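hey so i finally got around to running the thing on that chain from the lab meeting. sorry it took forever, my laptop kept dying and i had to restart like 3 times. anyway pasting the input first so we r on the same page abt which one it is
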Amino acid sequence: MGSKFSFRLIATDGKARRGEVSMPRGNVRTPAFMPVGTGGTVKAMYMDQVRDLGSDIILGNTYHLMLRPGAERVARLGGLHEFARWPYPILTDSGGFQVMSLSQLRKLTESGVTFRSHIDGAPYEMTPERSIEIQGLLDSDIQMQLDECVALPAKPKEIERAMELSLRWAERCKTAFGEQSGKAMFGIVQGGDVAGLRIRSAQALKAMDLKGYSIGGLAVGEPQAVMLDMLDVTCPELPEEKPRYLMGVGTPDDILKSVARGVDMFDCVMPTRAGRHGLAYTRRGKINLKNARHADDPRPLDEESNCPAARDYSRAYLHHLVKSGEALGAMLLTWNNLSYYQQLMQDIRDAIEARRFADRAAEITEGWARGDLPAL
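ok and heres what got predicted. didnt touch it at all, straight out
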């Protein structure tokens, strides 16, 4: 653990990077997957479990925490680490993505965004300065600039307008953040599905000399091929000595293909959300526990897994829990899914260090393609 914020590359294999982010609250091994702790909780999990599965860092959501219980209250109670009983690094988003998704409830200006709470309709204003202030009250270790995220497809002129606004907001966020020992503010590359705009955004943010760079506005409905094309043009424009974070991504396949293009950090609600809806991620691909084929199956999800949820409970029992709407079903499947994701990340890190990432990625993909065990 360092007293300052730093990033070092440990190994590379092609464009894939194995590194480490150091902060006072802990080190983050990269490539890293950050479980999403929207409201100060990773849904259906104990924080001790999240840590034991190999998570070095979690994500907190500025918008939701601002509305409930309130950033000032969290600050009075010792900050988000103390509040949530997670003493390790936390990354907070800026709140921008949620505000942008409230298109019926918000008004956008150069100054910022005014919007109404989705909870009670109360009015709020989110400016770049206020976003950084809230993230400071939460006491997160990595903070995001406020940006405007445009849903795809969109017209190039609209994408360009939002990208330019995001750059101006990045400058304001950098000024508001100032110099904070041991912490970092990341800029966010925008530009939709227009390669030239992505390059312009990345180059302008690079000139600001920030401590890290996020790639936003992807995984918002566009095909995977478009996302990968944008990574192909964006990653080479970002400094090699700084971490790169692809926001809101994604599936295990998205992660493998993005690591191959030079991405270091990921977050996504997918493993936790899927767990609450009866879907398990495994080395044999996705398994839907709602399906009747599992009702009499005494076999576990994966007899070779280190995770008790995958190894020790029968598919029949998991099917019963899911069909009955029992909370334990969501807990066990979320546990399995986060375990699978963190094991995948460890696999990726080991393969990059051994300089066999492409081979290992092919083996993992082949395992998904072979599919689940045949029904009994």
